[in-house]
Amino acid sequence: MSTETPSRVAANDADTPAEPAILAPRDRYTNRELSWLSFNRRVLAESENERYPLLERLRFLSISASNLDEFTMVRIAGLEGQVQRGIETQAIDGASPRQQLEAIRDQLLTLEERQQKSLETLRTALFDEGIMLAPIDRLAQDQLDWLGEYFESDILPLITPQAIDPSHPFPFVANKGIGVIFRLKRGRRKADLIEMVLIPSGAPRFVRVPGEKAIYVAIEQLVTRFAGQLFPGFKVLGDGVFRVIRDSDIEVEEEAEDLVRFFRTAIQRRRRGRTVLLELDEECDETAEVLLREQLEVEEAMIVKSDGMLGLADLAVICNEPRPDLKFEPFSPRYPERILEHDGDCFAAIREKDIVIHHPFESFDVVVDFLRQAARDPAVMSIKQTLYRAGDQSPVIAALIEAALAGKAVTAVVELKARFDEERNIHWASELERAGVQVIYGFTEWKTHAKVSLVVRREEDGYRTYCHFGTGNYHPINAKIYTDLSFFTADPALGRDAAKMFNFITGYIEPDDLERIALSPIGLQETLFELIDAEIANAHAGKPAGIWVKLNSVTYKPMIDKLYEASQAGVEIHMVVRGICSLRAGLPGVSDNIRVKSIIGRFLEHSRVWAFANGKALPSRQAKVYLTSADAMSRNLMRRVEVMVPITNKTVHDQVLGQVMLANILDTEQSWQLGPDGQYHRLRQEEGGFNCHQYFMSNPSLSGRGAALADHEVPRLTLRGSSQ
Length: 724
What we know:
Layout: H1 25-28, H2 32-47, H3 54-84, H4 97-128, E1 131-133, H5 141-155, E2 161-163, E3 178-185, E4 193-198, E5 206-209, E6 214-218, H6 219-225, H7 227-230, E7 235-246, H8 259-271, E8 275-281, H9 286-296, E9 303-306, H10 337-341, H11 346-352, E10 355-359, H12 365-376, E11 380-387, H13 395-405, E12 409-414, H14 422-434, E13 438-440, E14 447-448, E15 451-459, E16 462-470, E17 482-489, H15 492-507, E18 518-520, H16 524-540, E19 546-551, H17 557-569, E20 572-577, E21 594-599, E22 604-605, E23 609-612, E24 624-628, H18 634-638, E25 640-647, H19 650-666, E26 671-674, E27 680-682, H20 692-698
Parallel strand pairs: 1-6, 8-9, 11-12, 12-13, 14-25, 17-22, 19-20, 20-21
Antiparallel strand pairs: 2-4, 3-4, 3-7, 5-6, 7-8, 10-17, 11-15, 15-16, 16-17, 18-25, 19-23, 21-26, 23-24, 24-25, 26-27
Helix pairs in contact: 2-3, 2-4, 3-4, 12-13, 16-17
């Protein structure tokens, strides 16, 4: 999987255009898994960003560690499963599962080391600010005395030491479970005794020592330090802290007759999945380490030793320390003036004209209020809603329950296959059914990933349908962090299309006459290809041709090849891809006209947009603009129900294209540019750069402005001077 830039195939002569370069797959595409690791390195780099407040840097470190845990549980576990079953399916770059694992392991170790180095840097800087992530041996005696008392009163009742011998079998260690293993000696007994202490999931990972300074001590350090209270009369010969990562993916059986029962069982199996990674502290006792290796059945290659802290994802708890001086300045999302001018009547505002809400810069409360109003409005007859992720305390679920209890016809499509939210979604499905909501689980083989609400209201001139199409989930917590777009419309054609989409999910009635929207897996890909082909035709005809696209991931080979074809035809393509990107930008003869950047900043880029020049230079009013729930991945285009909706309202069109997309393209302060070698390089951050998140926080959106803000001077953005 070389990352060297390939040479271009020479043309026959100087007057003949060069043929598209013929490259080996490893030089034409970037491996999905390695691209993901590159993304996580960019996340980790934010923990090293000295422009950020310290606790925000610590939060990025915890996010990087959490990401790596999930990658191990799902992606590495999947590749290992393929190797064990003898599957030799090649990745997009031609690598076999075994070759991918070898490359991943090398990068995984480097990434783990860099995380520990970042932690040490932050530990030193936080110490100067009165926050200590303290090694227990460096604490004062009075602090140790307090910890000893705390251990006896609060920790000892929670933990259970267990001997490991023929009459005490090796205990089960849960996924992401942390434990301490001891080698002990008692009196004249010849044989050493091995004891294990597992840290209960309900125990605090870090204990805060009382005092003016915020001193945090990891609980595993307490267990090690105060082992004498656990094992009175024993001598500790050696010890070690360990952590286990297990296979956590769930494969849906197509013949499953009861999806709820299947997932309840599968969730239990996942908790006991095979061990994928064993993490050990560097000083782990050798005898104890051998026992762990044998009992957990871990290959040598997937054992990681660290001289630092294990389980860095748990550092997120410390980020809640009440130190506003070490965090980003507080930001309160705006509530659209247009809706306030209608006295908070969402239906009146939407009926007047379409509106798009840009989260988190504009409040997710608008989405919740739309559904609450629907639940309480006597004129509303029915509500249909997709639910992929809704969170723990979901006001969206509460609104649907309220509507059902009020006698409205409510249908909820609950996706049980939303990874790591399966258990929560089963719970919400039960609550909704109990209230009288018609709950549908969608397709067995496809996930329903589209984000759509449909409300039918009886009005003076007949029934009117109001729709919400989103690029993100109905999750109020994520909506404070993720950048997403919520599009509200009362367009009758879009309402008819949305109704057909729900009929497709609930009754398998495949729509063959959609007026405006495109659905996957039955036509969205074809629609995108037709739009790209139109740009190729414009380029051949000498007309302006361009594509702007913003996605989370690009891995689907046919889509990448189609974009390569467009580039070779002369179509100028700007791509903002936050995470995985298997496409190579700027390859001579292949993708010369494609520029790709990744934005990593205070907010998580999540909105998905396509824009096509349509014969005029971008950005222009003639451009075709679409919002979608789908990324350019095979799963989104072939194995999920996704929606793509056109934006035709002038103001909304201007906002999505001339504000959201253009600001993302112009951003320099949070951007990483993708090179032809598949590597990313940070753009400039010096004085004079442009920060799209700061721009969105400071300026009202176009479609959300009310009459009082209509003349508000929003800084005009232009491509001139762009680093692109």
